[in-house]
Amino acid sequence: MAGRRRKNAGASGEGAAEAVLPADLELQDLYGAFAAHGLDDEDLDDAAVLVPPVKLPDERELAEQAKAVPMFGYALALARWAAPHRAVDEFGDLVEADRAPVARLLGLAPAEGEVPEEAEVEALRAWSLACDLDLVELGTTAEGEHVAVPGPDLEPAEQGDPDTVLELWLTAAGIVRELAVEADSLPEEEGEEAGEAEEGEEGEGTEAEDEDALSEVEEARDAAAELLDEALQVLYETTAFAEPGNETVPLGVLAALLVVPEGEEPSEELLGDITDVMVALDPMLGDLAELGLLDYRPIDPELFDEEEGEEPAVVGEAPLDEEESARFGLVRLTPLGQYGIRQWLLEDGYDAPLVGELAQGDAAELLRGLCESTNVLPEEELRVWVSGREPEAAARELLAAARGSDAYGPLRRMLCVSALNLLGAGAEPAAREVLDDPELGGAVRAWLNAQGVADVPVPDRAMALWTVVDTFAAQLLDNGGDAELLRELITDLPVNGDATGWFGELWRVDHPYTADVLEAIGELHPDRALAKEARKAAFKARSKK
Predict the structure, then answer these.
(1) What angle do CA 280, 282, 286 make, to 5 degrees?
(2) Which of 130, 135, 333, 545 is 20 to 30 Å from the Cα of 159, by its Cα?
(3) Is residue 438 a contact partner of residue 463, using CB atoms and an 8 Å limit?
(4) Is residue 150 helix, strand or coil?
(5) Strand, helix or coil at 51?
(6) pLDDT for the residue 28
(7) For the chain, what percent of residues have pLDDT higher than 70?
(8) pLDDT for 200-253, tens place per residue?
(9) Per-residue confidence at 413, pLDDT binned at 50, 70, 90?
(10) Strands 294-297 and 249-250
(11) How far apart are CA 215 and CA 348, in angstroms?
(12) Which of 328, 285, 280 is nearest to 303 (CA)?
């Protein structure tokens, strides 16, 4: 899969006035992956694609979900039906006499009565998939008869072997993905007059025209493949960041995320592009839903069928209710879909981690991994690690791992406190053991106070000042620092009306990030006099080294 790209500012499309899209969608609330990484639009083409970690069921559960997908189940059922062998035509398709019985076998048609043509077509599609997956193998008898026999993967797949089932399903998903792109890139049918050549006209230039037509089809295929890849990766990321139960994305939002430049609202000029993307994605997403990658509610075709005298729905008018909004399409990536997209990302060389991968070792490995990884959800990793552990022992291990004056020390201590929050009151005995530790004492005192413990001793002056620097340093290390959070910390600084004296103490604190913290305070403090004192103190801290 190609790494997704957002459109550059200034993109526009024709036909904006006729666009249809839900009017009450807040993009910024639904998706903020790039904002989390601090990337600007102009940086996206050169930046590494950061794929967030996802939670997946275990492979046995995923295999059961794959077997429950109707089209995949049909392929398995037909492979079993082919035992010990079945006659097929010269192309390997079902013979005419078998098509109606197979449709009934799969439950696509009633047991009695005429079998609809659509049911036979669906049966042929399922048979084609079984052949593509080698669940049935084609051959010729000594008498020249074309036959199909079950393939070697049928039995382990029927028994639910996770490796076999998931490999087969992933292959099927890849086939459907390619077919969806092919179908979307086919040129639209032209009228007879435009499509017919005049009799007697010389064929000069026909070869060049054929080459041009082939080139156009290839370009359309590449564009459709790129659009689908980008849409799937956006769905993968939004699902990773979504709260449980909120994974469904309106198709209009998905299209807008691919079209609207980061941080902007959809403009009139972009509405046409958004609608075009919605219409292009609609059939492709529908195809992928057949293999269980997605739960998809397609666009209601009546939205584009204007009745005489009616005006089309347009963004910016009265907000749509939930049901009206759903008519524009809804898409949700399933766990199988997450699994499939992750496998495609891994095949293309992307780092696509799973939640909990960093939580398999001891506390030192956990905290080190959280500090060094660029695409990680720290709270989720901590939650996995503390789950099932005895709180006091876990807290003791975490606190020991949080010590250190290296570059990641402040961030480790901040993560340690987050883990203590998850452990709760059971961590109190371990926290009390380090009250006098010069690196941990201030942090655990603050944690104990937050837990409502009444008899927490006040830290001495040196410990209090060191903890101020360490707390600020952790925020600076955490994705470059959250300016709003840093401003909140700044307003709580215990300067007590003596900025010169307080900063005069702070710059002498023996901490590797003292100068950096003072510079940040000098840059962000709203009081110009205090900010000036902080900058002077930062200069002294730098000079001390």
Answers:
(1) 135
(2) 333
(3) yes
(4) strand
(5) coil
(6) 32
(7) 83
(8) 444 455 777 777 778 888 888 899 999 999 999 999 999 998 988 899 999 999
(9) very high
(10) unpaired
(11) 26
(12) 328
Q: Enter the tokens of residue 84.
A: 């010990």
Q: How far apart are CA 279 and CA 4, in angstroms?
A: 19
**What is the C-alpha to C-alpha distance for residues 20 and 276, in angstroms, rounded to an integer?**
10
Tokens 């952790």 belong to residue = 474
Q: What is the DSSP string of 409-473?
A: HHHHHHHHHHHHHHHGGGGHHHHHTTTT-TTTHHHHHHHHHHTT-S-PPPPPHHHHHHHHHHHHH
Amino acid at 106: L
The token pair at 4 is 């997704």
Q: What is the pLDDT of residues 121-132, one digit of tens each?
A: 999 999 999 999
- Cβ-based neighbours of 9, under 8 Å, separated by 6 or more: 41, 261, 264
Q: Is the pLDDT of residue 430 over 60?
A: yes
Average pLDDT of the segment spanning 283-303: 93
Burial of 351 (0-12, 13-18, 19+ CB in 10 A): middle
**3-class state of residue 54 by DSSP:** strand
CB 252 within 8 Å of CB 285: no
Contacts of 283 (CB under 8 A, 6+ apart): 180, 183, 184
Residues 368, 376 contacting (CB under 8 angstroms): no
Q: How far apart are CA 505 and CA 22, in angstroms?
A: 57
pLDDT at 199: 43
Amino acid letter for position 27: L
Beta-bridge mates of residue 159: none
pLDDT surpassing 90 at residue 21: no
Omega of the bond leading into 53 within 30 degrees of 0 (cis): no
Q: In what order do the strands lie in the sheet with 249-250?
A: 249-250, 330-333, 294-297
